[in-house]
Amino acid sequence: MATSRSLLYFFLLLLIALAFLYAFISTSVRLAEEYKRPRRTLRAPKENLWDTLLDDEVSQLINWLYEPEQGLNLTYHDNATHWDNFIGVTELIPPNKTDALAYLEGNGSVPTRYARVVLFQGASEDPYVHEIKVGPLPISKKTTWEPYNYIYNKGDSATPWYGADDKKRLHEFFKPVVSELADITYDLLGTVIYGQDNDTGGLRTVDPLQKENGRIIQWLEFIGLPQNGYNAETLLSQGLYLKFDITGRDPKGWAFKALLYNDIMYNSSAEFRKAYNTPGFVKLNKIVQGDWMTTKRQGERLPLDELPPPIAVQAEGPRYLLDVKNKYIEWMGFSFYIGFSKDLGTSLHQIMYQGKRIIYELGLQEVMTHYAGNDPVSSGLTYLDSYYGIGSYMYRLIAGYDCPEYSTFLDNWFHENGHTMYQRNSVCIFEQDAGYTIQRHTSTKVMGFGGHHQGYASATRNTVLVVRTVASIDNYDYTFDYNFYLDGSIEVKVRASGYIQGAFYANNEDYGYRIHEALSGSFHTHVINFKADIDVMGEKNTFERISLVPTTEKYPWSEKPKNTMKLKRSSIGNEDNGKLNWPENAAEMYVIMNKDVKNKYGEYPGYRIVPASGSPAHLIIQDSPYILEAAEFSKHHLFVTKHKDSESRSSSAANYMNPWDPSVNFNKFFDGESLLQEDLVVWFNLGMHHVAHTGDLPNTVSTTAQGSMMISLHNYLDLDASRQTSQMVEINFFTEL
Amino acid sequence: MATSRSLLYFFLLLLIALAFLYAFISTSVRLAEEYKRPRRTLRAPKENLWDTLLDDEVSQLINWLYEPEQGLNLTYHDNATHWDNFIGVTELIPPNKTDALAYLEGNGSVPTRYARVVLFQGASEDPYVHEIKVGPLPISKKTTWEPYNYIYNKGDSATPWYGADDKKRLHEFFKPVVSELADITYDLLGTVIYGQDNDTGGLRTVDPLQKENGRIIQWLEFIGLPQNGYNAETLLSQGLYLKFDITGRDPKGWAFKALLYNDIMYNSSAEFRKAYNTPGFVKLNKIVQGDWMTTKRQGERLPLDELPPPIAVQAEGPRYLLDVKNKYIEWMGFSFYIGFSKDLGTSLHQIMYQGKRIIYELGLQEVMTHYAGNDPVSSGLTYLDSYYGIGSYMYRLIAGYDCPEYSTFLDNWFHENGHTMYQRNSVCIFEQDAGYTIQRHTSTKVMGFGGHHQGYASATRNTVLVVRTVASIDNYDYTFDYNFYLDGSIEVKVRASGYIQGAFYANNEDYGYRIHEALSGSFHTHVINFKADIDVMGEKNTFERISLVPTTEKYPWSEKPKNTMKLKRSSIGNEDNGKLNWPENAAEMYVIMNKDVKNKYGEYPGYRIVPASGSPAHLIIQDSPYILEAAEFSKHHLFVTKHKDSESRSSSAANYMNPWDPSVNFNKFFDGESLLQEDLVVWFNLGMHHVAHTGDLPNTVSTTAQGSMMISLHNYLDLDASRQTSQMVEINFFTEL
Ligand SMILES: [Ca+2]
Ligand SMILES: [Ca+2]
Ligand SMILES: [Cu+2]
Ligand SMILES: [Cu+2]
User: Fold this and answer.
1) Interface predicted TM-score (ipTM) over 0.85
2) Does the keyword Nuclease apply (chains A, B) (predicted)?
3) Domains by residue range for chain A, with CATH
């Protein structure tokens, strides 16, 4: 009996041991396969249709353009004078949506590839920039070129190039004027310009050019050159302004027209010199250079600050899958391609969530900054940064600062002037702990008559996938984030830092604070336009406004009517009503719905779009005399239009060269077409009104200069999608916490 | 010659070696003293004046209150019937500002301590709640009590206590009515209530109570009780409503008045039963319980999700200094005390920055949620959570989820019903990497005529100090953050999660989406009011509006007038103009300035207050028939008043008990007093309009339910304060990046 019982115990123990062993082995296998060597790369299901041209494609293309048969009369950029024609940007034209979807989601073949080539046509009395479309690529017998008119609703892909003689004017026309004033500028401003390497001053142009009575006008401002190696010259306005007429290509037609100092106009240098030599001439404060212009550490050291602050670590590598070649990513139910262009930088395409396309295209359209001021330069300064090429300013990122050390860094490159420019590590991808739970709940309550006790705490980690780039466009640095959340939301975030563009302090009280000895924090509005081609369960969607309105209602259960509030639903019927602002008191929701589909409770599935941080800004200035109709997207907070391949961008690089007749007039998109169950595109603005104060020196601080938009599922799934994650905890409040 | 040279070399080498040794030793010493064993605790310069009463104080106080000499006729709470008097909350009364500042910043002694004691007076035909002020503390011969009228602008610290007989009514009056209907509710709703432990249904009251023709009305709704242990009963409205008259203390005066089902009123159970038994009676959908109510993991597993996501680590301990006893913190130039109250939870006091007070008091005032609906319950539900005691719902935090593992956790405790309630680890303090730089700039440019090349990248870490609490007020979880930034900014952030309070779906289409079988995402507005007693370089300040306005201006340099924009500055002259909303298009800045002080460039130093994330909400409902004048703070986005010790809070726990004559009518604060160079208090709202959709199930997701306000320096220092940190990098773009 005893023996058999021992035997039984022995077998029982053996069984338990085997079970443990099995459990251990199976866990180990799982760990080894799933965790320790996870598949972190993958092959994109289809090719990326929105990345840069391949090196082969572009070198063949450029050789082809130089062939006499094409009749383009091109000179190699590095040898070109201002009287030659040369090649500027060369990049891929995104495919038509229909073709792209046929390939991506059906059996269609890869859409035929075409390039956009920008030609600078200097060999002409009326120099111009011309955009052509070349294809099919790669180069073959079938390849041809034609004017790339399709996306320019001006109807023409050519734009006057008033800047063709910039260098010549700088060296041969402006220089003598400013050199001749050197004795006065040395006294008044503390700097001189002779056009030499050791100049202590420089000239700032006001962009864009202006027209006056049919003449092309260029205003210039004297600025100090930083003497300490910092890129701070936008803080060194000096308040002396020159006006030139630069009409035409013949220097004989150019003229120095006037000089402005302390709000007084002088018609010539001689007149200014005379006034300067007259007793009583008012001399304004000079700029004072110093450490205040530098971003180096300064001021008292902070206690314990040299200890390492908390940083994020990633113990076992990334949890996203990446096809580096195709710039394709999969993460927690999301997948998308990353595109790139020299003008606009990084964009996202074919964003899928849980197997369905939710956004066909999401990307920057334009970065506008409109200044105001008492002087002709700060009054007129209006940047449209895509003209300068936002993508070309997306420099290498600083690992450990711009992005966590553990990020994946991708390269960008673009083709301009016949060269390929590489920007290593200019896109970073990383997961980030948001620093707060996406869901949490604690309950310790006694319930019902019975009073059964519950006590638990439940919480879910909020891990975010971030795709980040930074464009340092001369003085300003814009950090662009595309953030993906576990609840299916996508956030587009912009943060500003870098140097403000200041103005000279004198007479500028109504246009900004005085923030240094001779510096005004010249106030301005940033309007940063994005395109979101949202598709809710197919392309046919409707833009719904759900207004929350006060009302007085009668109810069967109440003798008297009650003051309350209710939902008022309406659709934006057509493009004439497609220009929107964010409502006062946030008392309205904007949702893109598919009204041909109902969820199981009878509601239409949709995505809501809503400002998530900062305050979106549209332009305050009405009918800007400088940007004219070149930036109509800046007049409201957001817009809805019907998708058209020909309405591919809300702006264009060429817009800035000719605001009098812009290549893309965004306002023409709004021509009464129905928006009911159509393919909709939402164009939204981020940005801010920026009244710089002393805290913007030396650089604007991101914490108070950021804004974002959230695009989130709305009655789209049956439950919150973040319930899928394993990164959660549920514990007994009374025994475990 | 050779020898003497060798000797020279030898001495030189020795010197170098010694220098190295010295450098090494001095570095080691520095490391050892400053870094490896940094002083992480400190003694607060003064005692905390805003924390809870000490245990000794409170036990003496309670004994004193029971003494017959005080004439309060109190019964120990746990023995009290509804016809007895007992003690509720017992807590410290904050000192007057003048006394506090005399102590904190001068030679004044510690302000005399007084307690606020809430007395529930049940032993009366008209039961009431009475607040008294007791002091000085600790108890001595000098201690007396008086009505605590001072902060109640009703002029009286007593409030009717209509809920005195709640338990009795529940057990003896409501129970028979619902039991008698059990057969019908079992059929219609699927649940029964007999007042037993195994009841499957419960009753929800509508708060606050209502008055009709002078009678006190209580509406009740049948709800399902969750069968799976989750606190989800707010998702289980059943659409059957009962109306009772509960006026007075005598049950003979109470009456069951009516029953409401499917928008039809029945005057008695019999009438309802008759209709129910009549053919054609419409039976609505029943609630369906299931996993959708649970916060457990559900749905498909996400790829790679079981790998650890990035988390924050803190290598060498905290970089703040803490006096745990006094709840006093110093961090990077900031210092402050943490206060606590049962009604309002955590607050911050005497916030100093760089040696100067910037905020005297920063704290929550009220959490209001106002619902709307077609039924009497969701129409009338209006929570003022301080009545329930927001601090008493600030439970233990989940380390690693609510706050990083490396956080410092503090305890709270409060005194209620003669007991001391401890809430361990209910405040967490931690530094956090914001996930983006506070400053960055890259420059690769060629400058001026001379074209000297620069290429550098500069970036600064954005480390934030967070003080966090979470209040799980029954169904909802509010996470409250006070964030401190290196640029001197302070952010107040609220995030919502937990269970929504739904409504029954039927006939509620105008008041929310149908989000489950029988559930409406009953729409509501959260208005979360905060007080910020900001002091800019002393108490005397002015609230400035800087409007950004479109204008057309003539300039000496332009023939034609130009459309532009400019700043228009104005002050809020007196309290009649002290009710504000956030402007359309963010085209106005609100800055609290000290106009008796100018910075070195002639501008007034100030702090700007601006929404940083989310969209602040004020109430949409006009003149709510339920909350009446008890929540006047909910009618605008923010308010400015002159500081008064008697206007200590914008609301009160008692307000909710008697909205017809609230103890604090916030509107009375606005009585025309001058606000020009006076001690100002800003009262601002966070919150949101919440139209719940399927993504709010099971819990609201924080990512789309958050809002914050930023209070930041404005022309206050000469430069951005974050330049002081050592946590920055500056590298050569061309050789190091
Ligand atoms: Ca679309
Ligand atoms: Ca104040
Ligand atoms: Cu700016
Ligand atoms: Cu809510």
Assistant:
1) yes
2) no
3) 55-148 (3.10.450.40), 164-293 (3.10.450.40), 323-731 (2.70.98.20)
